[in-house]
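Quick start: read one record
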Amino acid sequence: MKQATLNLSIVSALLVMSGGAHAATDMTFGGYIKADVMFSDYGNGAPDSGALSRQFYVPGTIYGTEGNGKEVVDFQARESRFNFKTVTDLDGHTLTGFIELDFMTHTDGNERVSNSYSPRIRHAFVSYDEWTVGQTWTTFQNPGALPENLDFVGAAEGTPFVRQSLIRYSSGNWQFAIENPETTITPFGGGSRITSGSGVVPDFVGRYNFNTSDGSSFSVAAIVRQLNVEQVVGTTSYDSSEMGYGASVAGVIPVGKDDFRFTATYGEGLGRYMALNYANAGVVDADGDIQAIKSFGGFVSYRHWWTEQWRTSVTFSGFTADNDIALTGEAVNKSAYSAYVNLLYSPSKPLTFGVEFMHALNELENGYEGDLNRIIFSAKYVL
């Protein structure tokens, strides 16, 4: 996936356009420190130390490693993050810069001595009034509707979840964006995923956000994208394209002090936009043409406040792909489900201690299943 490149020439140009002599800049530093202890039970054997699913739940990574022990414990502080933000008033125009890093997903460290892991870019963008350029959450996702879970993503199957480079225009309740394209394809008959960066057509996304008088907030998003592959894999040459589309609704509904959160998403060719790319966007047929794969995912979550300091979230999440097994074969991901319940305690606003139990079940088209039970203990301090 292509990364956003932000340089000083963008900021300089905006300063010149706006008469930067009257600029006043506010700078803030933020983030949090989070430590996790995770007791995991993999039904088919635990992945090796440092594997992605040992860091957080990723659908498709819990089928297990035969011969390994099933029960493991992992201590980590890798979710800790830091960010830097500037907001500049340019004669009535607002210029914002934001960059954020954490230490997740990397395998360039180990647990033997120092647990040293490289920082990675989460967000890096600049906004000028209604325009945003850089890497951030896809416009197709509503991150404000995500449940309050201790797992890094939480409800991973049931939500769009992508950060990528984009150009976005916002006007009132509306947002429109062109975003970085990337296609994931299943070869004819099954096999290793083909990840294609070819094609020159960006993904097009539109979203409408609105609030109601009772304090509820909702979003409706749509995406249109081209699935494209033009490359040689092994001895096979691929050259095909197909259209994909999808729609997603999300919201947060207050219930007194409590709240109900949800997201529901359907599409053909969504691929990497859903369930952390649990299913591919399409499959190549016998003629070498891409056929888009239909998928549906969603979650519901209820958060209850026991007192001003104690709260609980209960979350159910699921995803299913409509694979044509005559094309994909039967050794492809079919469905994924997970459930969470937690208890969080905040003795003061920036400090939270919590415990969470999660259960996840993944299934291939051939009926093979992988399951994971995990208890997470966390301590989090917001900077």
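Residues 35-382 form a domain with the Porin fold (CATH 2.40.160.10).
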